[in-house]
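Thread: Modeling a multi-component assembly for a lab meeting

Hi all, long-time lurker, first post. My supervisor asked me to bring a structural picture of a complex we are working on to next week's group meeting, and I have zero experience with this. I have the sequence lines for every component (687 residues in total). Could someone generate the structure of the whole assembly? Inputs are pasted exactly as I received them:
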Amino acid sequence: MNDLTNTPRTKPRTSATFDEYTLSEIRRAAATGIYDIRGAGAKRKLPHFDDLLFLGASMSRYPLEGYREKCSTEVVLGTRFAKKPIELKIPITIAGMSFGSLSANAKEALGRGASAMGTSTTTGDGGMTNEERGHSTQLVYQYLPSRYGMNPDDLKRADAIEVVVGQGAKPGGGGMLLGQKITERVAGMRTLPVGIDQRSACRHPDWTGPDDLEIKIEELREITDWEKPIYVKVGAARPYYDTALAVKSGADVVVVDGMQGGTAATQEIFIEHVGIPTLAAVRQAVKALQDLGMHRKVQLIVSGGIRNGADVAKALALGADAVAIGTAALVALGDNDPHWQGEYEKLGTTAGAYDDWHEGRDPAGITTQDPALMARLDPVAAGRRLANYLAVLTLECQTIARACGKSHVHNLEPEDLVALTIEAAAMANVPLAGTNWIPGSNGNF
Amino acid sequence: MTLSVKPAGDAAGLQLVDLSTSSVRELNAALHALGPDTNQTFWKVAHPNGRHAIAAGLDAAIDIEIDGPVGYYCAGMNKRGRVVINGNAGVGVGENMMSGFIHVKGDASQSAGATAHGGLLVIDGNASARCGISMKGIDIVVKGSVGHLSAFMGQAGSLVVLGDAGEALGDSLYEAKLFVRGKVAGLGADCIEKKMRDEHKALLASKLDAAGILGEVDIGEFRRYGSARTLYHFHVDNVSSY
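Re: Modeling a multi-component assembly
Sure thing. I ran the full set together rather than chain by chain. Output:
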């Protein structure tokens, strides 16, 4: 008989396929019968701007002197048709986030921070608030399928209009704002009963496809006397064709949002499994503009996972005119701050991982309509933090651009970049570092 | 091309615009430039020929009569204007209207009165699919029939149909009130027939009155439809409806 106590045993082995998170999700699903809903964007590891490097100047390229030689950052959006294009001092804008999903204080802070740095903010699904308009020197008004709060007066007092076809977190998906966040004010703005779950439609109610969109854009231009730049925002899925069709439809600006781009709330499975990463989307969108002879004539804004000035510089080098930030802006305001760790733990999570934004219990007072929680966010101080953060992104982007010898951040180009991985090289259409190899590419995608 | 506006006839303030010689842009720019005290209160538009966005963004208490068919989004986002279309209307007539009155004397294409917050839209003929989709307070009276998915996600306001309604009427309805005199091919998710009490008859009468046809139809022939409100809160037991 064998002595089992002395027999060597293998260590307990957990499955890479059924990992700890997956097991917990299966148990949660079995207990509730409902899919997991959360906010934010894709959390899984994805090919991203971290997989690219700048080459910097060397024998054949002259760098610019830091702190002495100018590296400009201004960007003009909407030069194709709009009588009044938007002029931004920095190539970083604030992405659309609704009053309703965010507190009024958070929206005010976004406006304060962006305005201090000379850039724009964007409304979201739920209409424009006076606070938001008042605190944003340049405000982009989103035109969404739900048309909640949509009215011609707000359309006329906006600085630009963004027709939202989709967003990176959920291309092809609508939204659901749970009843906890539908306060009297939110409900009033959306013409809905207080406290009910409120769906945001996934398709526009009065147009389908690019031929109709062209007519819709014509209508919006007529209503606003051709003054406002009109953006078309798409979730990154088929960016080459979507960009081309947005141009065909008459857009002044195309916004491409990768799957790392955040949402107020949608299914976890949707966020992680639909759409493509930002890195994979930029060059396809740029290629579409170049093939149409419209690069720099129709401006491109890229969003989804922008965190630092290197990300900004890389997006611009790949051909974008500007970037938009959402999640990073919320973090700058105070979202997921360790200061509230004790409260995150009470909610069964931890600082840095809190994403149940739809439940309205945000300890930081940002993704909530609870007056007591909302009061925790000082819009002036939070706005200052956002302005600081935007300043850092800009300085970092300029630092890299100067190192590459560029007197304007828009002069960054794909030639300044190499990739660390074969995947990133193929997606960004730049050579693998140390080689002249661009996998799978002969200039086509 | 410059806008050709001809003061005509002996009607004070009558403006004539011929879209065979003027552009929609010129017409809309002239309409948007009207001041609050304008005496140009009656406009006639000739030869619209199905052009899009005619009188879009109107914000003036004036009358506009369009002689012929219009394209997409005629009188879109209208505020206060009274617009009569002597012909058929394309997609989204009166979309997102805030107030005022639009009268289509022919048929209307899809999404008539979509997302509109207020005002009255009267369609003498039929309306196609999605009539009153996401309506937010508008009153729509259709003397003919409406297509499928009419009043889809309708939030507020009323849809009165003297003829028949297509499939999936009132799908995912919120608080819009629906009245249909003819047959309903099918009700959408969470839309149910409701009892027609006196207050509903009075409401229906007021809409028919506003459309100028009170007394021409028997209110007793209408049936009322509204939201069962079972989908107002997400619940796994309703998963087959989602």
